[in-house]
Amino acid sequence: MKNIIAIFLLSALVFTACKKEVEPVSLNVAFKPTNKGSGVVAGGILKDVDNKNFSLDEFKFYISNIEVTDVKDVKTKINRVVLYDLGVNDYDIFYDIPEGNYKSISFGLGLDTATNNTNPNSVDETDPLSISQGTYWDMLKYRFVVLEGKFDSTVAGNTTPNKPFALHIGTDQMYRTVEVFKPFEITGGKNYVELPFEINELFYSTTDTIRFSEHYSNDSENEVQLDYGNRIMNFFKNAF
Amino acid sequence: MRFRIGNKGISFFLLIIFFSILIVFSCKKESDDNFVFNPTPHLFPKPTDWRAIPLDANNPVSEEGIALGRKLFFDPILSSDFTISCASCHKPELSFSDDTRTSKGVDGQLGKRNSMPLINLAWNKKLFWDVRSNTLPEQALIPVPQHDEMNLDWAIATDRLQKDANYPMMFRKAFNEKTITKELVAKAIAQFEMTLISYNSTYDKYVRGEVNPDPAFFRGLEIFRTEKGDCFHCHTLAAVETFADPVRVFTNNGMDLASNANDFLDLGVGKINGLDADKGKFKIPTLRNLAFTAPYMHDGRFATLEDVIESYNLGPKNSPTVDNIMIVKANYRLENYGHYGLALSAQEKADLKYFLLSMSDTSFVNNPDFKKPIE
User: Do A133 and B247 touch (CB under 8 A)?
Assistant: First the structure.
């Protein structure tokens, strides 16, 4: 009798100990804005397209409809919305992705129409779509991208940024999808994918450049602002 | 234990004795004066599209706690000379605010700031104009000993309550405690404050599809929530319980010119946390019940809503801490339309005022449950 109990106890112990060690397979996707090769921190001095100073106080954007594609073209959807928030939340961890070799990750920048119609008071306080995130406009639903900071408005542009800008971009038409071809492997335990992008690439392409001095205020309210918004979202899509 | 397996009769007998002793003992604790602690949970209203009321796990709300908190709120027993209660400065008919720039405490002493309306406070993460308090029970500890308010030592206050004919039993019914402490007083007041929920303004009824407001309402709403008036950046309508940006919480809305952060007459949030960047910043207040809460702003500087609108209409005054978005929008207006201020017409100002007043709720200020209890 005593032996049986001892064996039982021991196996229970071994069992719980084993359980602890098996880590669930996870994928950590991190968005990494860079500026001329360095990292970006809130409040730090950054250099714009013309090498003029600017700084960011706030940089948020929504990522949704994330999907990973493996080398055999099998796609796995990740049903989560992520709110990137500079200095606060620059990554998210996903589970339930099969182990294997992957060739690309795709995602939406912003929110598709259905998600954009979410009632921000109907979800949990901590949900990325909650009113508590401060991303909801009264008129226009969710702000997909929030960029706030200051730029140096002097000609030389090498002094402390002095003039504030606030670019809030949203409405259904701003939604963009991105596919980044980047091989990565998912094996047991933790896995990482980094998605770096140059912050200035939100403001130019080979044929078009937007400067803070010409465009520092946007609430996606009129034709002019929507045009700027669409251009910025096109640049952003190509920044990855 | 002495009984063996198999001797089921005896063990059952022993068990019964054991439990009866337990029951007798636990009964005794409660029944020395026939008191049974049995608080009635309070059911909060849940207006459509509102976030569930954030409850305080350390302070479950009961009808007994609310009744006690209400009595305390209206009782001048908590002031040194028995003249001032919370309700002296937070009058129910004024949506629990006061109609003077600053309010009189004990000995006619004037406070430094405008009394704040008490509405939907459970949804507020920060309290006071300078956001120095985080929770209702924490806040309720402050006015009693404050010299220009109720000016009474907590030790004396709790002693008075303990000797009162009614309070000790009310505290037992609410908290199952015989000894009255300042923390329990604060918790009871907080429970009453949590019930002060306002959700029946014209604006609320419009959102719920119950009324079809006048054209002036829609014209005012349009000004409010577009760049035209640019009110929505701070007074978020979708944050319907508070109408305040849940992330920013406090800011400087450009009412004062200052070249140095220390030049503000009242340093606001910056005085509490010592940061220059927060000097001259104040809590974004609720815009509910403005019909009852004049005068306006932290110092009560504006007697009327016309004054408030006129001030915003001029555009933000510059200072080291003025809200960036206000400056962005003012610069944008100046460079694109040739005016730094909002440049609202007389009609537009009237429409904006009409809309602001639509967020007032008469049923709240007339609610008999929120009035001084009848003794």
Answer: yes
